[in-house]
Amino acid sequence: MREIITARELAAGGYRGDTGIKYQPYWWDEAPRDPATADVPKKCDVAIVGSGFTGLSAANTLLDNARNAVVFDKDHPGFGASTRNGGQVGSGNQKFRVRKLIELRGETKAIALLREGTRMLEYIEQLIAKEQINCDFQRCGRFRAAIQPQHYEAMARDMEDLRKFAGVESFMVPRAEQSSEIGADMFFGGSVLPNDASLHPGRYHAGLARRVTEKGGRIVGGAEVIDIVRDGSGFTVKTARGTTRARNVIIATNGYTGALVRELKPRIVPVGSGLIATGEIDAAVVDRLLPKRRVYGNTNRVFSYFRLAPGARRIIWGGRVGRLAAEKSPRAYSHLASDMLRVFPDFAEVPITHAWSGLIGYTYDEIPHLGCTASGIHYALGYCGTGVSRATYFGQKIALRLLGKKDGQTAFDDLSFPAFPAHPIAKQAVPIVETWYRLRDALNQ
Ligand SMILES: Cc1cc2nc3c(=O)[nH]c(=O)nc-3n(C[C@H](O)[C@H](O)[C@H](O)COP(=O)(O)OP(=O)(O)OC[C@H]3O[C@@H](n4cnc5c(N)ncnc54)[C@H](O)[C@@H]3O)c2cc1C
Fold it and tell me: What domain count does the chain have?
């Protein structure tokens, strides 16, 4: 049995069997998963399907408003993306350039969406403070590196628009000065969003779950919701561990959405994303390569994202999922080590300790959606890979909306939720589309 595998060895590929890599999220070491095998109650006010940030945030808001909420998950609570993500926390404004959003939605709507995106970041910070969740939330700032010289110019224009239309603060760092931000010379400068943040997703999820149960909510693991039937004044919710009667139902399944609700299935395509964690890196190397300890991304469509783990000198490096991710083998993650070494060759001899993947929920229009189906089932999902703040915010909003509160209104309310034109094909085509984007990224370099 091998004790460790280095980034260089992982990138080279070829290893099979045990390498010392744990094929589970790094975050689970500090926030171990709780099976939460609570009983299924006979009835409740609101049954929530999915126990990630959306489901827990919705439950928390409902409990604060004296409604009794039960959260179901088919696996252990937090099985989905919420405890698998990179812990980079931005506003909800990262998917579109401002000009593109205006072109698609018109100026008034675009501005409303952008301003609300900014509020999402404020909301998660306030919630963490109010609920006293110890999860290393820090306004560390985000550095986004330009892969090509023209990306730098386009980003500069976009940052100016973001300031003008949504009041978002940022500054540009030209290539000549970028060593103050990142010790990698392959980039052409970049932008800094100083108010973006980072957190420990495992501890954030565990803290939110704890608050929900302390307030009297119930979280039931191992309870796949198999059927939801509308009858009379509510719903019969059938789970793998028993049936409950609920006045309302919220679907919070994002990238793990299956065929449970007919209207939602063709509107979400799951896209995989993978991460690796390294062992401890020498302090002097970290100071030179990541002096500001921000969260990092770049301007590629299929992009790499990385950061230091909280309180440690380990890199958490994410990117596209390997074709063989389900295999839990080194070769399923060797591409991530290659991507990392292309940016930071100094990490060649650093051990890789963890490797894992998860599912992002993509929508056709690349905008998250919340609302209610014709049969009265509420939903909030489709964060397209930037969901730490969005899911938290949408969970709260869908709960307020269900309660009929004025505060539940959002700029996202009146957006139509398009289905993918050929959903089964779109699902199959994800690897092809991704390869196409990578090819375009490569040709553009
Ligand atoms: C690898 C990866 C990295 C990411 N990195 C970032 C990042 O750095 N920053 C950022 O902002 N966003 C990131 N995201 C996105 C973010 O994590 C998600 O948008 C967010 O966590 C979604 O939360 P959620 O509660 O809606 O869904 P999830 O956390 O995915 O939870 C959905 C849950 O529904 C359950 N479920 C599904 N069907 C049923 C059923 N029938 N019955 C019961 N339970 C069911 C699943 O088991 C799952 O636990 C990342 C995502 C991934 C996958």
Answer: 1
Residue 81 CA, ligand 1 centroid: distance in Å: 3
Ligand 1-lining residues (CB < 6 angstroms): 49-55, 72-75, 79-82, 84-88, 224-225, 252-256, 258, 260, 273, 275, 318, 358-360, 381, 383, 385-388, 391
Is residue 2 one of the residues assigned to a domain? no
- Over 60: is that where the pLDDT of 445 sits? no
Mean pLDDT of 360-379: 96
Phi, psi dihedrals of residue 225, rounded to the nearest 5°: -80, 120
Domain-located, residue 230: yes
What is the average pLDDT across 304-313?
96
**Which residue, among 100, 97, 101, has the nearest Cα to 111 in the 3D structure?**
101
pLDDT, position 109 = 96
Three-state DSSP at 298 gives strand
Residue 408 covered by a domain = yes
- Within a domain: residue 270? yes
What's the CA gap between 344 and 321, in Å, rounded? 20
Minimum CA distance residue for ligand 1 atom 53: 358
Residue pair 218/38 in contact by the 8 Å Cβ criterion = yes
- Give me the domain span that covers residue 119: 7-441
Query: How does residue 290 score in pLDDT terms, banded at 50, 70 and 90?
Result: very high
Q: 388 C-alpha vs ligand 1 centroid, how far in Å? A: 9
CA of 189 to the centre of ligand 1 (A): 32
Atom of ligand 1 nearest to the CA of 57: 25
Q: State how far the Cα of 217 lies from the Cα of 56, in Å rounded to an integer.
A: 10
Residue 79: CATH number of its domain: 3.50.50.60
pTM of whole model > 0.90? yes
